[in-house]
Each structure stands twice: as structure tokens, then as C-alpha cells.
Amino acid sequence: MDVEGNKRVFQRLGPSGDSKHQKVCYHWRAGNCYRFPCPYLHRELPAPQPGNNGPASSKRPHGFADDQQMPRRNPNVGNSSSWGRVYGGPAGGRNVKKTEKVCNYWVQGNCHYGDKCRFLHSWSTGDSFSFLTLLEGHQKVVSGIAMPSGSDKLYTGSKDETVRVWDCQSGQCVGVINLGGEVGCMLSEGPWVFVGAPNVVKAWNIQTVADLSLSGPVGQVYAMVVGNDMLFAGTQDGSILAWRFNAATSCFEPVATLKGHTLAVVSLVVGANRLYSGSMDNSIRVWSLETLQCVQTLTEHTSVVMSVLCWDQFLLSCSLDKTIKVWAATDSGNLEVTYTHNEEHGILTLCGMHDSEAKPVLLCSCNDNSVRVYDLPSFLERGKIFAKQEVRSIQMGPGGVFFTGDGTGLVKVWQWSAKPTATAR
Fold first, then answer.
1. Which of 26, 133, 349, 359 lies most in the core, judged by the most C-beta atoms within 10 Å?
2. Of residues 263, 268, 296, the one with CA closest to residue 282
3. pTM (whole model) above 0.85
4. Tens of pLDDT along 325-351?
């Protein structure tokens, strides 16, 4: 029986034979089967076919229901039924080792099993990307990473109340800025680097060396984004503050304060002439960038909305409720959930980027100290990144480079791998 089209990512095949007389390994489903070889299947059984030992199933266990069961969508938002479906095999994914756990002895530098160790001697799985180098210096969780366009410097912020400046050529720290308060988030836009801190947003222009302080926030600034020539900052008291840069005075002037959330705003993104805000009140609010008024409130998440991002014509959101939700516009223009991806752990942050073949990829940090790497829109898993503590910051860089910052203060630099080219015979 050909089950290639139904493969799950990272599945490991069990014994061959008639699947009707085989059982799926209970420990494999739980993610902790260590038997070599295992007598049970390390894959899900294929769904029953029409006319066989049961009725045809119209549900897919790990994706959407069939198209005819989907509510009608606006045809202009793309094919929403493609979410969670895999066509034509793994498309860049690969099978990985059975035990996806980093060897503690290897981390300490004294594992004597070498290649025979059943635990990972690597900070990642998958062959789509590779680890380049480690940036050490922060003493607490890395809460922001920014790389201004055209700059050869990387800026990282931490709850140790510092911003570190790194030379991208040497990987050396060339500057430490003491803020006197924990860094809540960071953002780069053009020559500007913005740093969110308690009761203030710091704005640094790396070209003019301007150093500005934007007052107004109450409490920590957890999220920032630029849209429609305005800087937005989500704050601890649930407000979103907006500023616009005045070139004549070389200052950022307050524009508005957006109110509606009842708890801290921890994520912001701009897309389709809308501002989307995720909050600790478990909701997402949709704001018009023209009127700065709230036009919709999304309440499908059951815990903190940790991150929101726009991809293609969809909004993606993640939460501590262990789900990633994909939102699409209906005929009325309102957003509705078109697909829900479930994880085993709470989700901390999302970051979208393209791999070396320009394919869209989603990096999803979970509170089990790992980052899942998924193809979009299939959610096929390409690999994982592991850390000693939770990864709180993920940032794209130039030339296929990306960065992760974790709870121990470490910043890791990664590189998307180029697809091997076939050699002529």
C-alpha cells in the first residue's frame, strides 16, 4: 500500500506488511520511543477507503475537512483549503533521529558515546538550515533582536537592561548600552532602531546618531511595528500608542492612543491597511490604519495571544493555548478562522521568512525550549531548533541568515542551506 501521500513529517516507518494487522506505537505517538528496532508502526495508519471496511472519511486527521465542507470564502484571499495539506511528499523535510532530545552530557562536553549516543549532539534537526555561530554576553533572556537595513551591526536587547551591538563580520560585541530598564522589544525600520523599555521608547538613528526618547507608554513596551508612516507601541496597560516622525523638527510626535484591550498588548503586525494587536486578554483587535478605530475583535483564542503575523492574504496568530490559527477574510470583510494548527506546548512567538529556495517558512517557538520550522501552507515540519531555555526572539537577517535569542541570554546565528545542485555526468 502506498502511503507516501499520507506521511507525517519526521515519521519513522515501522515493519512492512498489511496495515490492518499492525498497531501504531503508543510511545512513538507520545514522542519518546527509544526501541531499535520497534515492532510497532512509527506512522499513522492510512484512512479507510470507500468500499473497504468502513465508510469513507471526509475528515483529515491533521488538516482541513474536505473542500465541500468548508464555509464559503472570498475567492480573492487565495485557496484556504490548502492549509495543513501536503502534496507530493516532504518537499524539503527529512526523517530525523528518533530521540529529539539534546544530550545533556554533550552540552557539558563529556558524552562518551559519540555517534552511538541515542540523544542529539546538535542544537537542531533537519537539513534545511545549519548553525553558524554563538553570540555570548547577555545575562538574561534576549527579548529583542534588530538589524537595520544596510548596516553591518546587529542589535540585541535583554532583560539584563542592556542593548548589545555586534559586528556582523567578526561576530564580536563592539558596544554595550545600559538602559536602566528591561528591554521589552526591539524594532528596526530604515536607519532607525527602536527599543521598548518601561515607560519609554528609545529611538536611535544609526546614520545621524540621533538619540530620542518617546514618552507616553505606561509600563513596559512589549511590541512595536511601523505602518502608514506611524510607529505603534503596545504597552503593559493595554494601550497602543502611535507617533509620526516630523522631518522639520526631527522628532516623533504623538498621533493617537488606541484603547480597547483590557490587559497588556504583547504583539503587533501591520497588513492589508490594518493594524492587528494580540493581547494578554486573549483577544486580537483589528484596527483601521486610516481611522485608527477598532473594526473587529477576534476572541477564538483561550489564552494569551503571544504573536501575530501576516502571510500572503492571511493573518496567523499563536497563543499559550497551544494553537496557531489562520484567519481569512469572508465576503463581508471580517476575519474568520480557516485553519487551526495544534501543538503540544504553548506557543511563544512566530516568525515568517523564506528559505534558500524562496519557499515560505514559519518558525514557531514553543515553551518546551524548541522552535519548530514549518513549510507554509502545509505545516510540514522541516526541522527543529533546541535551546537551554525558551526562545523569545527570532529575527531575519540578510543573505539567508536568521537569529534566535533564548532565556539564557544566548543569541544563535543560523543559515538556510542551499539546495545541492546536480552534477553533470
1. 349
2. 263
3. no
4. 999 999 998 999 999 999 999 999 999
